[in-house]
UniProtKB/TrEMBL annotation, chain A:
It holds the Pfam family QcrA_N. SUPFAM superfamilies: ISP domain (SSF50022). Gene3D superfamilies: Rieske [2Fe-2S] iron-sulphur domain (2.102.10.10). Iron-sulfur subunit of the cytochrome bc1 complex, an essential component of the respiratory electron transport chain required for ATP synthesis. The bc1 complex catalyzes the oxidation of menaquinol and the reduction of cytochrome c in the respiratory chain. The bc1 complex operates through a Q-cycle mechanism that couples electron transfer to generation of the proton gradient that drives ATP synthesis. The keyword Zinc does not apply. It is found in: Cell membrane. This is Cytochrome bc1 complex Rieske iron-sulfur subunit.
From TrEMBL, chain B:
Residues 28-254 form the Cytochrome b/b6 N-terminal region profile domain. This is Cytochrome bc1 complex cytochrome b subunit. It comes from Streptomyces rubellomurinus (strain ATCC 31215). It is an enzyme of class 7 (translocase). InterPro entries: Cyt_b/b6_N, Cytb/b6-like_sf, Di-haem_cyt_TM. GO terms for cellular component: plasma membrane. It comes from the Bacteria. It is found in: Cell membrane. Its EC number is 7.1.1.8. SUPFAM superfamilies: Transmembrane di-heme cytochromes. The chain crosses the membrane at residues 56-80, 126-145, 157-177, 189-210, 222-247, 279-300, 347-368, 388-407, 427-448. GO terms for molecular function: metal ion binding; oxidoreductase activity; quinol-cytochrome-c reductase activity. Coiled coil: none annotated. Its cofactor is heme.
Length: 353, 554
């Protein structure tokens, strides 16, 4: 070995088995003799194995024919009952099983062939160190030095420096090209669709299941209703972006049960309108426990106490759900008169805390 | 000049010393060799020796599932429309009729119900992806626990690590494409994670999504990443990985006739061509059969994505489960820094700090171990896990951490299926994150030492024969039989590294010399790895001789 060996490493490495110390019971006895298999010595066994391999290949052929037949013959909508799977698509089952058998049998045949009929004599092959020997190393180093000297890369500093400069600058074009991937954040994450509402021009809340305006008396204590701003429809071009921020979760809690004064004031007679978007990573919160007033996000289990200003009582969310101020208009419909006081959804760097 | 003279010399053919080919096959081979040089390539490889062990098949599973994924994936692109444009569903699946959805979702439903065999190919694609990542993880465990990552294979370990990470993320991008309610929730999760990055989070989010979440660009962009960018890189890495496997030759277990300087096994042609080629069909066939009977990702049941809707039991594919666990159990720490900026530690720490750490610890381990050991030699004989107790214990601790986080990621499922409190599971995982790996480390290390003692016992005293002998004075003893020499050799073939020593406190002139922090850390770690209490001294020939030649009653 060309390099120094650290003294902490055993010395026998690499030479194990080469020098069989006389009388050493642990010495390498060398490769054991090959033990013939039945198919090596019994021609009938070999014939049998040959037939078995061929049988597997034949089964594969039949399965492929079955695949084509299933594809042509079975109606894609047909549902069948297969124990213990239950009701499954007949076509998917037939295609998958025939394809599976066709492939598996080719593999099984090949492996059986290799194991029974091909030679299983183990032979050693020599390994060569990955490292080059010292002579080659010196030769290559010399060649490299010569190449480097001929290029003048080290000597002509001006060429070197300008080349490095141009190589460093040219990727900037690629970076600049990425600019139009999207707009700058600016204030986009700050506000929601409710920002259109003002004292003079309030915005009606619309029940998401009925798409009707909501009256305060229709919302009973203990209920949970989802709402969105009037004027938003599911076919709008930007519906997904809007609903990802505007979605509301309305609960009605007996006013005396509301622990947070500010929350009570933002609500209307105990009806509280919280953002439905979790402040953790933005899942919609949809599980509500009527008796405890707890709302739970099904994604990561952040739990908010809606009777206490949507304070986080469990889970990974970092701050309470924003609450939208609601009142009723002259028709008695619930309306908003402005946006949330803070951004909805997950927090981010520019968000003031 | 010479060419001119040869043309003028008449009809004589250019000289070739090669004999006339015996058959058309040989002629074709000669033709190819004249252009590609296949004979020299085949010289090293056609009868290349591969050692045989079941655990060497794990990497093959990864290779084959990767091929299956590419083939089925190409098929799926023929029908999938990576667009977020809205369409009204009018296909044969009645529950969705008349519902507005993205083209991506609608085309995935069509692949499942209108294209004959489309559902099967989708399911094969998804199942193969799960097996692919699982295969890579188990393959890496094999390589880790047997020490096959040691010199000269460290770079190939890093290639494998990159394949694992890329495979995980490509899986994530892939299952995000159908734009169903579940995968959309996954993308939202990613958006929240990006927003938690300080300074640039909102910019990255806007540029990635082309505006506010979800926008209309994310599915087409994920599509390009999923089918072109990542698979392209992976293909390159995979080829490099395989070339290195061939170049280094395979590792082998210690045994009679096996040394650091040879490789014992059977030749590539025919045995390994048949076995490995056949194994491809076995893997493909099994995955096809699984896809025939086990439904996976039934997106029609989830419905199209809407950011204000969600289902319970929202789970990522299993390989992303540990990141899900990290995010679920992290306390919601959110702090204000630099005058009114928000730092969302509750998301930032688990996903941008711990998640990369858990993964990168895999990549760097070979380099750390070789630094501690100071071992610069090539290793081709595998370690039995028991003979490297600290390494084995570290690997087991990593796995236990991974499993604890998987429990955290499925805390809702564990709660509902085992009737446990969700909060209790979460608290358990918070504590377990720190405690379970430590306990696992200790238990595994002691276990390995116990197995080493047993090996020593077997070498020195032989194996138990089960024969009970009654001695003349009435005592009963069990007869032990000496192990054959090949077993004695196999059990004692491993080397035992001794800890590196600190250089002497004073140099040869008696001047005090202080070891640096790094040197001292290294010596300390080396003692931890190989010192007393971290390995049982293996039996020596003298010990064996003394016991066997002495009063040999057992």
């Amino acid at each position: 070995m060309s390099h120094d060996m650290s003294e902490n490493l055993p010395e026998s490495h690499g030479s194990a088995g080469e020098v069989a110390e006389h009388g050493n019971p642990f010495a390498d006895p060398g490769l054991p003799a090959h033990e013939p298999r039945r198919t090596d010595i019994d021609e009938r066994a070999a014939k049998r194995a040959e037939r078995q391999v061929s049988l597997m290949f034949v089964v594969s052929m039949l399965a492929t024919i079955g695949f084509i037949a299933s594809f042509v013959a079975i109606d894609p909508d047909k549902i069948v009952y297969i124990f213990p799977l239950g009701k499954v698509s007949a076509l998917n089952f037939a295609l998958g099983m025939t394809l599976g058998v066709a492939l598996f049998m080719i593999g099984a045949g090949a492996v059986h062939w290799a194991r029974t009929l091909m030679s299983d004599v183990e032979v050693p092959a020599e390994r060569h160190p990955i490292e080059a020997d010292d002579e080659l190393r010196a030769d290559i180093m010399e060649q490299f030095r010569q190449g480097a000297a001929e290029s003048g890369f080290g000597r002509r500093k001006m060429i070197r420096n300008t080349l490095l400069g141009s190589l460093a600058l040219v990727p900037l074009s690629g970076v600049v090209l990425l600019r139009d991937l999207g707009p700058l954040p600016e204030k986009k994450l700050m506000g929601t669709g409710w920002g259109k509402a003002t004292q003079a021009m309030p915005l009606e809340l619309v029940n998401m299941s009925t798409m009707q305006p909501m009256k305060a008396e229709d919302i009973v204590v203990g209920s949970l209703t989802f709402a969105m701003p009037k004027g938003l429809t599911t076919h709008d071009e930007d519906f997904q972006q809007r609903i990802a921020k505007d979605a509301l979760m309305l609960v009605r809690i007996a006013p005396e049960d509301i622990k947070d004064d500010k929350s009570r004031e933002l609500g209307f007679e105990g009806i509280l309108a919280y953002s439905k978007i979790c402040t953790h990573v933005g899942c919609p919160i949809s599980l509500y426990e009527q008796q405890t007033h707890h709302a739970l996000c099904p994604c990561h289990q952040s739990t908010f106490d809606l009777a206490d200003g949507a304070r986080v009582i469990f889970g990974p969310a970092g701050h309470p759900l924003p609450q939208l101020k609601i009142i009723t208009d002259e028709k008695g419909n619930l309306v908003a008169t402005g946006d949330f006081a803070e951004p909805v959804g997950p927090s981010y760097w520019e968000r003031a805390r | 000049m010479s060419s001119a003279s040869s043309t003028t010399s008449g009809a004589a053919k250019p000289a070739s010393t090669r004999a006339k080919p015996a058959s058309k096959w040989e002629a074709a081979a000669d033709w190819t060799d004249g252009r590609l040089g296949i004979y020299s390539l085949a010289k090293a490889n056609l009868r290349k020796i591969f050692p045989d062990h079941w655990s060497f098949m794990l990497g093959e599973i990864c290779l084959y599932t990767f091929i299956i994924i590419i083939m089925t994936g190409v098929y799926l692109t023929l029908f999938f429309k990576p667009s977020m444009g809205e369409v009204i569903y009018d296909g044969s699946y009645v529950p969705l009729k008349g519902i507005g959805m993205s083209e991506a979702y609608a085309s995935t439903v069509d692949i499942s119900f209108e294209v004959r065999g489309g559902l099967l190919i989708r399911q094969i694609h998804h199942w193969a992806a799960l097996v692919f990542v699982a295969g890579m993880l188990v393959h890496m465990m094999r390589v880790f626990f047997t020490g096959a990552f040691r010199k000269p294979r460290e770079i190939n370990w890093v290639f494998g690590f990159l394949l694992l990470v890329l495979g995980m993320f490509d899986g994530f991008f892939g299952y995000s494409l159908p734009d169903d309610l579940l995968s959309g929730t996954g993308i939202r999760f990613m958006e929240g994670a990006i927003l938690a990055v300080p300074l640039v989070g909102t910019y990255v989010q806007m540029f990635l999504f082309g505006g506010e979440f979800p926008g209309h660009d994310i599915i087409p962009r994920f599509f390009t990443i999923h089918v072109l960018l990542i698979p392209g890189i992976m293909l390159g890495l995979l080829v490099a990985h395989l070339i290195l496997v061939f170049y280094h030759k395979h590792t082998q277990w210690a045994g009679p006739g096996k040394t650091e300087k040879n490789v014992v096994g059977m030749p590539l042609m025919p045995v390994y061509m048949a076995k490995a080629g056949g194994f491809f069909f076995l893997v493909f066939g099994l995955i096809a059969a699984i896809s025939a009977i086990a439904s996976i990702n039934p997106i029609w049941a989830y419905g199209p994505y809407r950011p204000d809707q969600v289902s319970t039991d929202a789970q990522p594919d299993w390989y992303m489960g540990f990141s899900e666990g990290l995010i679920r159990v992290m306390p919601g720490w959110e702090i204000s820094v630099w005058g009114g900026h928000t730092l969302n530690l509750g998301v930032f720490i688990p996903l941008m700090v711990v998640f990369p750490l858990v993964l990168v610890s895999i990549a760097v381990y070979p380099f750390i171990e070789s630094w501690i050991t100071g071992d610069k030699r090539e290793h081709h004989i595998l370690d039995r896990p028991r003979n490297a107790p600290v390494r084995t214990a570290l690997g087991a601790a990593w796995i236990s951490l991974y499993l604890v986080l998987l429990i955290g990621g499925g805390n809702d499922l564990f709660a509902t299926h085992l009737h446990l409190s969700l909060n209790a599971i979460t608290y358990f995982v918070r504590v377990g994150f720190f405690v379970v790996p430590v306990v696992t480390f200790i238990v595994t290390k002691r276990w390995c030492l116990g197995l080493q003692r047993r090996d020593k016992e077997k070498v020195l005293h032989g194996r138990e024969t089960g024969v009970i002998k009654r001695l003349p004075h009435g005592e009963f003893v069990e007869v032990h039989a000496q192990l054959p020499q090949k077993d004695l050799h196999t059990l004692t073939a491993h080397e035992q590294i001794q800890p590196v020593q600190l250089p002497a406190q004073t140099d040869e002139n008696g001047v005090a010399r202080k070891a640096g922090v790094l040197t001292r850390t290294r010596a300390k770690l080396s003692r931890g790895f190989y010192g007393e209490g971290s390995q049982i001294p293996k039996p020596t020939a003298e010990e064996h001789h003394e016991i066997t030649s002495g009063h040999g009653h057992h």
